[in-house]
Amino acid sequence: GALRAVLARLREGEPGEGREPFELPRFWDALGQTFQVTSQEATKLSLAFSRPPLPSAEDCRKLSEDVQNAILAVATVYYWLPKGQGTTLRKMVRDATTEVVEGMIQLTDTILNAPMESLSQEQLISTGGVWEACEQVSNLPRDNQAAVVSALAACLGVVKDAVEEMEHALVEGQDPYGDIMEDEELGFRGNRDTYWSEADRQLLSSCMGLMKASKACLKKVLAAVKAHGKADSPEQIAQLDDLADIANEISPSVDELALSMYPPVNPLAVRLNAAKLASVLKKVLEIAKTSHVCPPSEEGWVQFLTGAVDHNMNKVKNFTQGQL
C-alpha cells in the first residue's frame, strides 16, 4: 500500500523547485546510490522468501521497512531535480524512477501470492525486473541536451519505420492487403476498395514526399542538437524542450497520414492529414531556426526543407482540388 501511494504521487506529482543551489553531479551520485540500495533490498526480500521456513513477523517488519525506505529515498532524490533542468530530462528520470517502484510492487505482489514450497519462476522474473530497472540509471541522459538527443533519435526511429512500411506497400502493382487477405477465402478480388487507382498513386507520391521530409527534418534537427545543443542556461534548456515537444508530434502525424493512404482512399482525409503533418514540420523548422542549435551554418537545410514541405503540400492540394 505504501509503495502504491509513492507510485501515485510520482505519476501525478510535480517536483518542487528542488534544493538550491542544485548540483547536477551530486544529484546523479545520489540517484545512482538510491537505485543501487533498492536493487539490494529487492535481493534481500526475494531471498528471505525463497525457501521455507517463512521469516518471522519481526523479520518481515524489518524487511518491509527497508524496502519502503529504499523506495522513498528513490522518490525523494527524483524530487530534487528542478523543472529548470529541462522537462525532457525530468520526464526520462521520472519514467525510470516509476519503473523501479512498479518493479518493487510487482515483486511484493508475487511474494504475497506465491505458495511457499519453493522459489517460483515468477518471483525470479520479478526480482530480475527490479535489478534491470535499477541498472537503467547508468544509461539515463545526464543533462537536457543528451535527453533531447535521445528523444529525437527515438522519434526518428519510429518515422523511419513508418516511411519504409509505406514505401514497401506502394511498390508498383503490389496489393497493400496481400498479406492479410486471401483471394480464395474472399472470392471477390478486383474490388477497388483494396487497390490503388492511378489517381490515388499520384496523390500518394506527394504524401510520400511529406513523409520523407519528416524523416529528413528529424535527422537534421538531431544532428544540429548534437553539434550545437547546450544546456548551460535556462534559455537554452527551454529551447531544447520546445524542440523535443514539437518533434514528438511528428510521428503520430506521420502515422495518421499513412493510415489514411490505404485504400479505399478518401482524398479529403488524405489532404487534411497531409496539412496537419506539413504544419507540424513547419513548426519544427521554425523553432529550430530561431533556437541556439541553428547557427548561420545550419540555415541552408532549414530553407531547403521548408521548401520541400511547401512543394509537396501544394501538390497534394492540386490533386485534391476537385474533391473540395
Gist of the model:
The chain has about 325 residues and is an all-alpha fold. The protein contains twelve helices and no strands. Helix 2 runs parallel beside helix 4 and helix 9 (about 235-245) packs antiparallel against helix 11 (about 265-290).
Keywords:
mainly alpha, I/LWEQ domain, 12 helices, single chain, flat, cytoplasm, GCIP-like_N, 324 residues, A middle domain of Talin 1
Q: How is this structure best described in words?
A:
The N and C termini lie far apart (58 Å). The chain is mostly helical. The chain contains twelve helices and no strands. The radius of gyration is 26 Å and the shape is flat. It folds into two domains: 139 residues, Up-down Bundle (A middle domain of Talin 1), CATH 1.20.1420.10; 164 residues, Up-down Bundle (I/LWEQ domain), CATH 1.20.1410.10.
Please specify the SSE layout and strand pairing:
Blueprint: H1 2-12, H2 24-48, H3 57-80, H4 87-113, H5 121-135, H6 144-169, H7 183-186, H8 198-228, H9 234-247, H10 250-260, H11 267-289, H12 299-320
Average of the residue pLDDT scores? 92
Query: Quick one: biggest sheet?
Result: none
Name given to the CATH homologous superfamily of the largest domain: I/LWEQ domain
Instruction: Predict the CATH topology of the largest domain.
Output: I/LWEQ domain
N- to C-terminal distance: 58 Å
Q: Which percent band covers the strand fraction?
A: under 5%
* Helix vs. strand class: mainly alpha
- What is the CATH class name of the largest domain? Mainly Alpha
Number of strands: 0
Rg calc: 26 Å
Share of helical residues: over 70%
Order of helices and strands: HHHHHHHHHHHH
Number of domains: 2
Low-confidence stretches: none
